[in-house]
Amino acid sequence: MFEISQENTEALKTFILDHDFFFIAGHKEPDGDCITSCLGIAAILEHFNKPYQLLSAGPFKRNEVISWQEKFSATMEFQDDAERKKTGLFIADCSEIIRLGEIDGDLKGLDTFVIDHHKTSDLESDVKGYVNAEAPACAFLIQLFYEALIGPVPSELAKILFFGICTDTGFFRFLTETSAEVFAAVSRLVAAGADPRTTYREINSGKP
User: Fold this and answer.
1) Rounded distance, CA 120 to CA 163, Å?
2) Which of 18, 29, 129, 201 is at a distance of 20 to 30 A from 66, taking alpha carbons?
């Protein structure tokens, strides 16, 4: 079962409401799932009218994510001590600060919330978050959080999250007979405006 519990939903909402500003970061050498998961978290924060900065150490080696590179920075916005105390850090698609790579600024010591799906991930005692190793993609978890917190995913975000899920599942080739819930969630994204044919072309850079 992939249903996000009320407890997990409230934990995320509380984390958002408790901070005035957020950094959102994913692992270095980002792939489609990492980038779209960060963008999905940003969409959730926008719903709550919370300012944020998207961070990535890069490099953006994969052709399918280059178009999003300009939305991210490798340099943190400056904050004084008082501002840092009211700042939260979201880490997507990994669980350790060391995996974020070389970001210009100090991410250590910030109140942190992790959303990840890797089997090797484990939350440290002072880190909040949600890790589900059974999930096929982090973007899938972001979709579930968005739906639980806000409601149906809007069209543009549906296209973004669909892209992320497709990249991490090999366009669904890696899913098994137990993946009915995943396909049900993906069908909601398609109903909202995600286009499988267009997404396939984007992932493969237009190659047949």
Assistant:
1) 24
2) 129
Phi-psi group of 105: left, alpha or beta (phi > 0 → left; psi -120 to 50 → alpha; rest → beta):
left
pLDDT of residue 118 exceeding 90: no
> Which percentage of the chain shows pLDDT scores above 90?
76
In this structure, are residues 138 and 37 in contact, taking their beta carbons and an 8 Å threshold?
yes
CB atoms within 10 A of CB 66: 12
Residue 160 has pLDDT above 70, yes or no: yes
Inform me whether the pLDDT recorded for 124 exceeds 90.
no
